[in-house]
Amino acid sequence: MLLIVQPLLKGPRTRRELDLFLAGSEAHDVQIRLDRLIEARVIRTAASSEATFELTDLGMALTSTIEELSRWGMHALYTADGALDPVDRRFDQRWAVGDGQGLRDETYSWTVDGHTFGLEVKGTDLIRTIGAPASPIVSLETSRDVMDRILFGGASMSSAIMRGDLVISGPSDAIQRMFRVVGFPVENFGYESST
Amino acid sequence: MTESRRTYNRFDPLCAALEEVGDRWTLIIVRALMNGPQRYTDLKVFVKGSGSNVLAERLRRLANAGVVTRTVGSRVGADVTYQLTDRGWALAPVIETLVRFGLRSMLIGVPGGSSADEPDVFDASWALSDPELAKEESYEWVVDGEAFTLSVVVQGLQIVRTRGRSKTAVVKLETTTEVLEQVLARTASLESAAKSGRMRLKGSPQAVRRMFAAIGFPPDQIDSLSASLVS
User: Fold this and answer.
1) Which of B47, B61, B69, B222 is the least crowded, having the fewest Cβ atoms under 10 Å away?
2) Which fold has domain B112-230?
3) B19 touches chain A (CB under 8 A)
4) How confident is the model at residue B163 (pLDDT cuts 50, 70, 90)?
């Protein structure tokens, strides 16, 4: 249910947009969840169109819940040191990249709190591998705290880079693609290429 | 039992969190452990109504995720207790925001919807685990001018919410969404809201106390309010 609320935090969405975001779910399941959220007064259909959904005031009250859950969930996602999840994992990123136009099959290296893992793009999939990957096109090094501030604390990426809290190297077009495929919010892209 | 672990397979922190604690009952168990270490039998009260394997299965998964640990007492035959790890305690803000949302949806989100005249039934056993506090009675709430009645049903420990006023209410409460939000967000205390008149309460201090306990208001807030009502 929260996965339907999540995209609506940024504004009304049409059913088509929601289906894209929920790629992989059955249309029937999505409809059941939409109906339940409407009944619970969390969302409503927009006045302008029956096929557009928006959050009610009550639904907006879930903003902080989604943010706190995401913040907590970063642990499992970014600290891929093998302690929690020792195997490679394959993620379906269609929710973030749609049909994947403009992406390339390439590999990024992330080091978060001293733990290094690879992110390998294959079509619209992202494969997280444990340990330093071979020949990454972009390398990123930071801490979970810094990630937290950028994603949820309103800190900009460029200020984190300037302070040296986030070290990133690689061609700027590849960096753009990388942030897109991991689903970072576009409004936080405000960084200057540091290549 | 086959493990039907829910996976979203998205590189997204929200999904990562939901995979670990998004199943029904899981956060209820975590919240129960925020009162301190609990034995398996203590925890059963909090998951009343779930299937027979659910508690054991959720505890095992919470342990695997590093959220909960088990301690076996040193005495022979001592009970196993469960407690939160640091990672488990890090869920406190999640639970706080969810409780605030839940209370808001239960207490504020009453305006005329499609099912306007259908009573809503809530399980209150988690809040009313002390049977001393449960009493079959009704409370009348007026929030932003909208009246509804909360009635405690001792049999089954439920709260029934109906629209409209109550002739038999032992407590009458009148306030605004804004004040409730502040109290739930802890930017204002129940006591200060009552004293400043922004929340008007009519009823005996004991009944007021039972009412807030039954709907699961934080105990410390209720304590400070009752102290001020008695004086």
Assistant:
1) B69
2) Nonspecific Lipid-transfer Protein; Chain A (3.30.1050)
3) yes
4) confident
